[in-house]
Amino acid sequence: MSLRLRIAAASIAVGVLVFGLKLGAYWFTGSAALFSDALETLVNIVSSIATLAAVWFAAKPADSNHPYGHDKAEYFAAVLVGVMVVLAALAIFRAAWEGFTNPNGPDYALEGIAMNAAAGLINGFWAAYLIRFGRTARSPALIADGKHLFTDVITSAGVLLGVVLVLLTGWTLLDPLLAALVGVAVLWSGWGLMKESIGGLMDEAASAEVLEKIRVLISEHGEGALEAHDLRTRIAGKVTFIDFHLVVPGSMPVEDAHDICDRIEEAIRDDVDGAKITIHVEPEHKAKHSGIVVI
Hints:
By secondary structure, the protein is an alpha+beta fold. Helix content is 68%, strand content 11%. It folds into two domains: 3-201, Alpha-lytic protease prodomain-like (Up-down Bundle), CATH 1.20.1510.10; 208-293, Cation efflux protein, cytoplasmic domain (Alpha-Beta Plaits, 2-Layer Sandwich). A hairpin with a 2-residue loop joins strand 1 (227-236) and strand 2 (239-248). It comes from Roseibium denhamense. Pfam families: Cation_efflux, ZT_dimer. It is found in: Membrane.
């Protein structure tokens, strides 16, 4: 099993542990805010399962039905995570409403508070690791899972702060109010995840920084060619697809043009992780005089 798969599987185990702690915190206290926090963690478990499935599917090699690979599967998982987050927010709003309509003050037992705090710390460490590893491995699904967990950490911290305020002030309505605020934060997180993932499904281009790097590499390593134009990129998980037209002198032998392409491709692969490059060679009368000038 690859490291990416092991980490995705570990997220499920972490989610189960954290959910158990938060559910215990709710059992000790009866707090609507702590219940809403536990609900979000239940969604974390479901989304981690989806992430594991997506990472496994994305790792499959290209085949006749998917000649460009399966990397986009991770974006589907990230969108699903976003949908699950939104559903969790709706459940949290319901718990908050019940707290407003039936304002029975929760019993903030020290055991419950301690269990919720421990769950928040575990989530915090794991979220930071997931985001860092996901960015290194260029895994949208793992990054989405990490960001979702980080939102959980923030809301858990807010809930604990609210618990302290209720204890200090005796205002029991703060409990459902905090649950509602948690719901708003969770809803915002879900929308952000879906927005980012949809960009990947819509073949979003590489960043301006990466595009400029590619232009410089073509210019510096395309000696013998005249220009390059119609540069296009798209991101699919850890893969960056790059294609452009390379203009060479009409009298240049095919072997020489091929050598130039090999040199450019090698330079781009060394600087752009996961680059998949397609170069269309054209004679000089196809030049547009508006693309990348080769040095």
